[in-house]
């Protein structure tokens, strides 16, 4: 069966489940979510929408990073772990040892945008040039056709799934230079870059706005079309993990399949990410 038919079938099942399950079957009244700051805005928007339809349900969303989200799920401290990367083998092993079975739900697709200050004359780089900046091989913007000023490198903290995606897709496992500044969220990177003309950073596609300039990478700009088509070179799926597949008809099941519904897809796209049905 083709991917498009599988997605269509899942969407039909999800929508049917929303309309056919009696209220008495929706036993779970509280959903705890923790993890990625990239997936966080999706989780928060989903939670707000879901609670507006289900007044008896309380959904809390924390953004402690993908790694901490995995730990919370493993330790039974949350119902959903938001992660901007797939679970590591060590995390799966730790989960199984505690009697848990992580199940991945791909809720959106994301492009990792390389951003600079809006005043920067630089419009595009290659993956190799970005890597050169973050290894310390390229230290001044004049080496790339910009002003004679030292480059300020901004990076996510090492517990972040966004950091690990950048490390894999851009750094090719090379070490980020010790002069890089580390911050705790996508929003913090955007704020640092927008206030620092010489800065460069990387954020999820949904965090790009007019306060920063997203660079073309290899001649390709990061947007919904280039990410969904696979042309943009720095892209990744975004996950929500549950312990096992949620009981059909439960609030957890209805929430975790929201991304397959037309409203869920609309929310994902409004935030700035790519719905899986478009990918």
Summarize the model shown.
With 279 residues, this protein is α/β, with parallel strands linked by helices.
Architecture blueprint of SSEs:
Layout: H1 3-20, E1 30-35, H2 40-53, E2 58-61, H3 66-74, E3 80-83, H4 89-97, E4 102-116, E5 124-125, H5 127-135, E6 152-156, H6 161-169, E7 181-183, H7 186-194, E8 199-204, E9 213-214, E10 216-217, H8 224-229, E11 235-243, H9 251-256, H10 262-271
Parallel strand pairs: 1-2, 1-3, 5-10, 6-7, 6-8
Antiparallel strand pairs: 3-11, 4-8, 4-9, 4-11
Helix pairs in contact: 2-10, 3-4
Structure description:
By secondary structure, this protein is of the alpha/beta class. The chain has two domains: 3-109 and 237-271, 3-Layer(aba) Sandwich (D-Maltodextrin-Binding Protein, domain 2), CATH 3.40.190; 110-229, Periplasmic binding protein-like II (D-Maltodextrin-Binding Protein, domain 2). It contains ten helices and eleven strands. The protein has helices at 3-20, 40-53, 66-74, 89-97, 127-135, 161-169, 186-194, 224-229, 251-256, 262-271, and strands spanning 30-35, 58-61, 80-83, 102-116, 124-125, 152-156, 181-183, 199-204, 213-214, 216-217, 235-243. The strands form two sheets. Strands 1, 2, 3, 4, 6, 7, 8, 9 and 11 form a nine-stranded mixed β-sheet that branches. It has a two-stranded parallel sheet with strand order 5-10. α2 packs across α10 (262-271) and α3 runs parallel beside α4 (89-97). The chain is globular. It starts with a helix and ends in an 8-residue tail after the last helix. The model is unreliable at 1-26 (pLDDT under 50).
